[in-house]
Amino acid sequence: MDLQVGPGVFLPRPETELVAGRAIEALADAVRVRGAGTVTGVDLCTGSGAIAAALAAEVPGAQLHAVEADPEAARWAAANLGPRGVDLHLGDAATALSALDGRVDVVVSNPPYVPDGRIPEQAEARRDPELALYGGGADGMRMPAVIAATAARLLRPGGVLVMEHDDTQEAAMARLLARDGLFTAVLTHDDLNDRPRFTEAVRTARPVQGRATGDDDGTMAP
């Protein structure tokens, strides 16, 4: 699958193929159970739209939404997702898509997660915008915590969250998702270099306390 990328957007990495693959499996399972046209997937912090584009290509029976806060990155996402029929929303992942609360089957995200002060090893990271890299705080977990909270709000009971993270964050991610009883079946997967790279979890039926209000800033039509 060809993607348009350039200055101002995170460059897709091979490791994220595994993240997309697990989200594809979960979304396809939901389609098999409930039928095409009744299943919804959301890609938070979509960047170039790489994950959402993969979902659209592999699970055509799903309704798909992607959220990006940075207007410059969203322009690249629009170019990649518009032809594939994915609804792109320009807005904050913390408050986006409130109309879908409790109705989403799969939430997937490759959010900013690099700990503050760390320089990524990959040469390509030198061309990535800092907004797409650094998750906030010495452990880089501020933005992943936002994604977890939004996923808890959006997912229906039994819905699946798939989130990429730093290879140092496996334990912190497990603690985050096990907290408050909002997720169960927390499982971490390794990347192509056998490093812990993404975690999945299943939404329980427990209600979210103090649900965020508001919606995204706008929709960029396909």
Fill in the keyword field for this structure.
6 helices, eight-stranded mixed β-sheet, Rossmann fold, alpha/beta, 222 residues
Query: Which structural category do the helix and sheet elements fall into?
Result: alpha/beta
Q: What is the strand content?
A: 15-25%
Domains, number: 1
The helix count comes to 6
Query: What is the succession of H and E elements?
Result: HEHEHEEHHEHEEE
User: Could you say what the CATH architecture is?
Assistant: 3-Layer(aba) Sandwich
Oligomer, anyone?
single chain
Mean pLDDT: 91
Biggest sheet layout: 8 strands, mixed
- How would you name the CATH homologous superfamily? Vaccinia Virus protein VP39
Separation of the first and last Cα atoms: 18 Å
Architecture overview:
This protein is α/β, with parallel strands linked by helices. The chain has a single domain (16-209), classed as 3-Layer(aba) Sandwich (Rossmann fold). It is built from 6 helices and 8 strands. The chain has helices at residues 16-34, 50-58, 71-81, 130-133, 142-154, 170-178, and strands at residues 39-44, 62-68, 87-90, 104-109, 155-164, 183-190, 196-203, 218-220. An 8-stranded mixed beta sheet has the order 6-7-5-4-1-2-3-8, with helices on both faces. Helix 1 (16-34) runs parallel beside helix 2 (50-58). It is globular. The chain starts with 15 loop residues before the first helix and ends with a strand. Mean pLDDT is 91; it is low at 211-217.
Short characterization:
The chain is an alpha/beta fold. The protein has six helices and eight strands. Strand 1, helix 2 and strand 2 form a beta-alpha-beta unit.
